[in-house]
Amino acid sequence: MKLKYILPAAVLCAAVFSVHAHAADVKVFVDDEQIVFSDVQASIIDSRTYVPLRGVFEKLGYTVEWDGATKTATLKNGNTAVIAKTDDLRIEKDDSRRAVGGSAYPIIIEGRMMLPVRAISEASGCAVTWDAETHAVGIYTQDTMPSDYKNPQGKGTKGEEDYISEAYRLCNEVKNIASDSKNEGLLRFLGRGYENVKTINITTSGNDRLKETADAIYALEPSGNAGTLQPFFKTYADTLCKYISITAAYSSEEISLEEAIAQIDSLKEEKDELAITFSVALNDYFKQKNVFYEGVYDEYVLDMLK
Hints:
This protein is of the alpha+beta class. The protein folds into 2 domains: 12-144, Copper Amine Oxidase, Chain A, domain 1 (2-Layer Sandwich); 158-304. The protein has 8 helices and 15 strands. Strands 6-7-8-9-10 form a 5-stranded antiparallel sheet, covered by helices on one side. A 4-stranded mixed sheet has the order 3-2-14-13, covered by helices on one side. It has a 4-stranded antiparallel sheet with strand order 4-5-12-11. Helix 4 crosses helix 7. The longest helix is centred in the C-terminal third of the chain and has 33 residues, at 257-289.
């Protein structure tokens, strides 16, 4: 699972907008091509950005049917259907149905149904960006995802994205080391088995790779606002070094098996607490960037550090 600024989303968290804009101030781009709406324009209403449903989804390849009696829009694209009403929003795919949008339901303005950007992302599986300075919404399909993850105005954040992606990859490498070495102590530390076992096989297997990974995390240099996340990655690297010290002490018979297990369990609690505080920091980081992001932050980061 690779970390990116912009991803096709199943569940998206909406950025918090503090701006208030007139309808004409909001621009909408699909794959970097601006959409020109004939009448009702995209708007920011009650801190949410709404765009005309018909113009956007038709551009994404959906057919749109409108039932005036029930005020229901049905959008279809292949085996995917989106049913939109002012009090409900659902997506049907492969004989399954689920709600999308949370409390962000469609609204009707001058006879046109408007959909929150968040809901568009969830329903269509596209990536969505928001440029707070220019009030520009960017909607990207998978095939045209910009390689440098830039917003529609070309203000790239590649350097920051690279740092987070590489740091995440290195954290994920720890799970690979545990799996490859079948190290029971390391798996217990990561919360991937042996949590309640009184006797485990504690070895130094994989420690060289762990140390290389920790060193590589330390060597990474973030750019821009991503620097606020560096202490969390470095602290995770510290826990890896502490784990290495515990196993080395046990291997040299400086501590007993019971003491080693107790220290590993204590270190696991430290790591899990780090994941919780890290999820808050990552949440704040993406809010500051005004970038929509896949997943619930807590689950993403908790999984990363396991």
